[in-house]
Write a structure and sequence with these properties.
By secondary structure, the protein is mainly α. It has three helices and no strands. The protein starts with 14 loop residues before the first helix and ends in an 8-residue tail after the last helix.
Length: about 100
């Protein structure tokens, strides 16, 4: 039995924002990916998706590492295992630690 609803990963007042950002993150994963072999366009000099990194920074501000890990698990289900691995790589050093 899962009781995760008793221990939310973020404060309730951020629910709408987290859901909106999560949908954006899923869209990025399905349409563009979180990593690239070349920089430019939506990808920074480290070939990481700029928008995904901004979302990661915001998630870190809202709920820290627990929220970020929760979103990676969700991406694994909604996008793919590979997408979740790419997102983890994209989020390296977000918040200085992830």
């Amino acid at each position: 039995m899962c009781f995760s609803f008793l221990f939310p990963k973020y404060p309730r007042e951020f629910k709408a924002e987290v859901e909106r950002l999560t949908e954006n993150l899923i869209s990025i994963g399905k349409k563009e990916d979180y990593l690239s072999v070349r920089s430019g366009g939506p990808f920074d000099q480290n070939c990481r998706h700029k928008g995904a990194r901004e979302i990661g920074n915001r998630f870190f501000e809202i709920g820290g590492i627990p929220l970020m890990e929760d979103r990676v698990r969700l991406i694994r289900r909604k996008v793919s295992k590979e997408g979740a691995a790419h997102l983890e790589a994209c989020w390296r050093a977000v918040g200085g630690i992830f």
